[in-house]
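QUALITY CONTROL LOG
STEP: pairwise intake check
CHECKER ROLE: data steward
CRITERIA: each record must contain a sequence immediately followed by its structure tokens, with no blank fields

ENTRY 1 OF 2
RESULT FIELD BELOW
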Amino acid sequence: MTMTLTLGDLTARTGLDVLGHLEREMTIPVINGPQAQGDLIVIPLDFLADITTACGAHWRDVPGTGIDVLRAAAAGNPHTLVADPGTCRWTTGVRDPTGLALGALTATSVAYLVHPEHGASGIAPGSYVIRRQRERSGRLGQDRRYQFIVD
């Protein structure tokens, strides 16, 4: 996928939809550092010394139509990772002592994370971990939990 896609271009290519209030003519930013999208945070793998991919982890190609990385249990809206065929791989085989990592990706071209409410963000070529963000409810030990998609 090119580095200058609009939200409208991306949704037309992938068949994914976003809510009507989002500006479809906006150029999607492509970021090569940490970035957040709603419940998720995307972090370059080399920023996280304590997270590794598991030995023998199953990597799968990310299709143009995408892979659901996370679906919030209450809202049901997925965060979908999309990329041009053959340019991005994804695995859920990640070792993370915090238990927040959903998986890792490696991309040779821009990949995108799409969410119906948040629109899309571009992930520059490289290797990244996608993690849940911890949300505190105000009471000690009460984290909001999310259902995540596994292979």
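ENTRY 2 OF 2
RESULT FIELD BELOW
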Amino acid sequence: MVQQFTKSITTLVFFLAFSMAWAQVPRGPLVLKPDAPDRYVVVPGDTLWGISTRYTDAPWRWPELWGMNREQIHNPHLIYPGMVLLLDRARGTLSIAGAPGTGKLSPRIRAESLAKEQIPSIPASVIEPFLTRPLVIEPDGLEKAPTIVATQQDRVILSAGDRAYVRGIGDSKEQTWYVYRPGKPLVDPDSDRVLGYEAIYLGTAQVTRPGDPTTVVLTATMQEVNAGDKLVAAGPARAINYAPHAPDVHIAGRVMAIYGGLGKVGEAGPLQILSLNRGRADGVEIGHVFALYNLGGTVRDTTKARNDPEAQIQLPDERAGLAFVFRVFERVSYALIMHITTPVRPLDVVRTP
């Protein structure tokens, strides 16, 4: 896919104190891949994560390749299809052909781009359904939400195309609503405290007649809809415009659940979504990358007697992959598995890489 280079690449150390002084987690030298391309043309479908993996096995250190400061990490989308990226091997930095400087992103690049669509941080199609839909609700979070109080011809189960009657929308101008019901509790494995409840997405409804009750038509359904289910305004889509980056400080947490229960029971694989027991209050932000670890178990030392207190050996946690945080709530966050070597399960560990 990329040009192979026979010349070996030595470890490159970046002295970026001017732009990375805020980083508090000590990190070793960043190593470029031996086959990292000297020149790469950005194409539609590329992501910041994907381009970064062409250059290094530590894609969360993308900001170091560009010499980004904190503000640029939070708004890195000045890279478009058609741009030519150049690698300065001596300095270990990337730049854009024709742009001033070596590794700095400049707003003037927007005028030079060959396409209107900025490349996203991670595959947008995978997480798009989760950018507007609330994933976590407080224990009483849906109590006062608009409620389906009656159904077309008193049907017990509603599906796409059916009408429903809703109280609580009032004079809202919102035309599109998501239908939910409270789901399973999200329990912190460390404290046994319920941090919230997953919201079960049932479908989408469109207002056809305002009033009290409001008439809506279900335009799409993922599960059966019943009287008593709740509505939440759809609102505008939220763009993910943070560069992949490690947390500034060490953060450790646990996997609480696998969203949607896809794959093997209790196991998650590539591009599946994990709920984590760390959120905004713990310093987690969109764009953070966590290393995933399978929780170490205990085994018996067969060289010792069964009743020997030292016969039980605690195994270390084993590195399993990487996950990118794309939604953050107060005590909970959601991350997309970007790379994995072994399946991830609830209770597994996440840490600053």
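INTAKE CHECK: passed for both entries
DESCRIPTIVE NOTE, ENTRY 2: Helices lie at 17-20, 48-55, 62-66, 70-74, 109-112, 124-127, 129-132.
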